[in-house]
Amino acid sequence: MLFTLLREWVLTPFTNYRLFHNFTKQDFLAQFTASIGGFLWLILTPVIHITIYYFVFSYIFQIRAVEGFGETTFVIWMMIGYLPWFAFADAISRSTGLLIEKAPLITKVKFPVQVIPVVGTVIPYLTHAIGFGLLLLYLATQGYLNWLWLWLPVIFFFQFLFALGLVALLSALCVFLRDLQQLIALVVTIWFFLTPIIYPITMVESETVKAMFLLNPMHSFVNLYRELILQGTVSMINVQIIVPVSLLSYFFGGWVFMKIKQAFGDVL
């Protein structure tokens, strides 16, 4: 039973490819429907974010560089962690309403409902990957390009699996526990500040506290992006954390979702 549910979960985008493709296309295009800027917002949004942070940290706080990353400006250092985090946070924040918003469809039509959390994770990662790609393109022209960049899609994929497992779990639980919607929004905010995105870990003086950051998987993801892109190195401790944690999240979240999905129609 366990392996049957996991196999169905893993094969969801393939066995239901047409439904998955249509849902993804529909939800992706819906972001720009009736928008004057249209797809231009895909480029403008990350550029505006980068510009704002550049102004705040470079001209107001006068922060220039981060210890251990050479002459790399603080804004570049920060955005390398911020953009992947933004994709993760967006996916988690949307998860609480995924099934509730699709309630009329779930209760009236019989279809593989497990497609919904997959699509709900793909959309924010696809959207924000464009902004991250623009940043990488800029950094490549500035001489940061190295062969370890080939590992970036792999790290991004594991982050996607980590997020997908959480999205599946949270979207399923929110059907029965609606208060989770407010709680998750608060947790995402706290999680952001517990991840060294807008501050370097070197600012933390206690070695014990630094070691506790390893309990935060997003800390390892952010570190890997910065090491690969800016230093051309990789810390195996971070790899040893993200691989099992991502797989555990993906399979556990998927299993819980598949286990209780039959009850969605009764509650919604």
How many helical elements? Answer: 14
Characterize the main sheet. Answer: none
Supply Rg. Answer: 20 Å
Give the SSE string: HHHHHHHHHHHHHH
Structural class assignment: mainly alpha
Low-confidence stretches: none
SS elements, strand count: 0
Overall geometry comes to globular
Relative helix content? over 70%
Distance between the termini: 25 Å
Taken together, the total number of domains comes to 1
Strand content: under 5%
**Averaged pLDDT:** 86
Summarize the structure in words:
- There is one protein chain.
- The chain is built from 14 helices and no strands.
- It is mainly α and 268 residues long.
- The protein has one domain.
- The chain is globular, with a radius of gyration of 20 Å.
- The two termini are 25 Å apart.
- The mean pLDDT is 86.
- One of its GO terms (biological process) is lipopolysaccharide transport.
Topology:
Layout: H1 2-10, H2 12-15, H3 17-30, H4 40-60, H5 74-95, H6 98-101, H7 103-108, H8 115-141, H9 152-176, H10 180-193, H11 207-212, H12 217-231, H13 236-260, H14 264-267
Helix pairs in contact: 1-13, 3-8, 4-5, 4-8, 5-8, 5-9, 5-10, 5-12, 8-9, 9-12, 9-13, 12-13
